[in-house]
Write a structure and sequence with these properties.
Structural class: alpha+beta
Shape: elongated
Largest sheet: 5 strands, mixed
Function: Adenine glycosylase active on G-A mispairs. MutY also corrects error-prone DNA synthesis past GO lesions which are due to the oxidatively damaged form of guanine: 7,8-dihydro-8-oxoguanine (8-oxo-dGTP).
Strand content: 5-15%
Distance between the termini: 62 Å
CATH class of the largest domain: Mainly Alpha
Radius of gyration: 24 Å
Protein name: Adenine DNA glycosylase
CATH architecture of the largest domain: Orthogonal Bundle
Number of helices: 14
Cofactor: [4Fe-4S] cluster
Organism: Aestuariibaculum lutulentum
CATH superfamily of the largest domain: Hypothetical protein, domain 2
CATH topology of the largest domain: Endonuclease III, domain 1
Catalytic activity: Hydrolyzes free adenine bases from 7,8-dihydro-8-oxoguanine:adenine mismatched double-stranded DNA, leaving an apurinic site
């Protein structure tokens, strides 16, 4: 059995009809790959459609403001992807006259483009024999070959990359790469894979050794840090509120949020009232404080869990430097803030 022939045959009969599979335009392939990093197809598809509609060319994306890009990206998370997307669009449009590099090596030089994305673009758009390795590929190869090398180690990265490069269809690398990713996503799934109907059932080591559920191996990450966020949702008599743009590196860079009071532990009404009274925006001002959500909203990020409370501050005078409540939905905010805005229904 030739691995890629069996894989490609499965793909031809089972692949999903997706818009980026109908083109070899590097702009659209690059856009789809960036959106689908750490994002499932079902979630990423509407974002891809929205970006293509709003920015049909790399020049359109390059000419957009960062706030426009972040607003359209809202809800996808990992916002550094959006900032890198915008930076690369400006570089390609302004420095490369709108033409993406046509090979793996030069694609790697683009901001936000790593081994996986460079391999995908190079193979799909330029037929370069560059194997992709993502979570789906790790899973398929580790199970089929019975490899227990941890996938989140340097040794694992090199081993699986070399194996994928060895297996790839040299005449049609684009189809092979898309086929193995699709097979991992649709058939050789993390849980409850379709082993009974698998075309590799007779030669899959993990299946024949009852090791499917144990592969791939991934070393445990460090325990996520717990942080306590308290957002002050200020509502003034003149229908104004306060949104602040996050500065510096870190989560939610350049996104907007309500004034934040971070505490070491969860705080109750009395302590929060005292903290609010000394806040620079509220000091020496008369206001009423109330808690919107009695139970903390836990927002889980990759390395930290945010235990969040929204405190409603009804200010008994006007805000001179606020923003109109009616315009709150125009700002690019983290999904945590966006969900609150939608639920609170200003």
């Amino acid at each position: 059995m030739i691995f890629y022939k069996t894989l490609n045959n499965w793909y031809s009969n089972n692949k999903r009809e997706l818009p980026w599979r109908k083109t070899a335009n590097p702009y659209y392939i690059w856009l789809s790959e960036i959106i689908l990093q750490q994002t499932q197809v079902a979630q990423g598809l509407p974002y891809y459609s929205a970006f293509v509609a709003e920015f049909p060319s790399v020049f359109d994306l390059a000419n957009a403001s960062e706030s426009q890009v972040l607003k359209l990206w809202q809800g996808l998370g990992y916002y550094s992807r959006a900032r890198n997307l915008h930076a690369t669009a400006k570089y390609v449009a302004n420095e490369l006259n709108g033409k993406f590099p046509d090979n793996y090596k030069d694609l790697l030089k683009l901001k936000g483009v790593g081994d996986y994305t460079a391999s995908a673009i190079a193979s799909i758009c330029f037929n370069e024999v560059a194997a992709v390795v993502d979570g789906n590929v790790y899973r398929v190869l580790s199970r089929y070959f019975g490899i227990d090398t941890p996938i989140n180690t340097t040794k694992g990265n090199k081993e699986f990359k070399a194996l994928a490069q060895e297996l790839i269809d040299k005449k049609d690398p684009a189809t092979f790469n898309q086929a193995i990713m699709e097979f991992g996503a649709m058939h050789c799934k993390p849980k409850n894979p379709n082993c009974d109907t698998c075309p590799f059932i007779n030669s899959c080591i993990a299946y024949n050794k009852s090791e499917v559920e144990n592969l791939p191996v991934k070393l445990k990450a460090n325990k996520a840090k717990v942080k306590h966020f308290n957002f002050l949702v200020i509502l003034s008599d003149d229908n104004q509120t306060v949104l602040e743009q996050r500065q510096g590196k870190g989560i939610w860079q350049n996104l907007y949020q309500f004034p934040l009071v971070e505490t070491k532990n969860e705080v109750g009404f009395t302590e929060m009232k005292s903290l609010a009274e000394t806040h620079q925006l509220l000091k020496d001002r008369s206001f009423e404080l109330s808690l919107y959500n009695k139970e903390s909203i836990v927002h889980k990020l990759s390395h930290q869990h945010l235990h969040t409370k929204f405190w409603i501050v009804k200010l008994e005078d006007e805000l001179k430097s606020g923003v109109s409540i009616a315009s709150v939905t125009d700002y690019a905010v983290p999904i945590l803030i966006g969900n609150f805005i939608e639920a609170f229904n200003f």
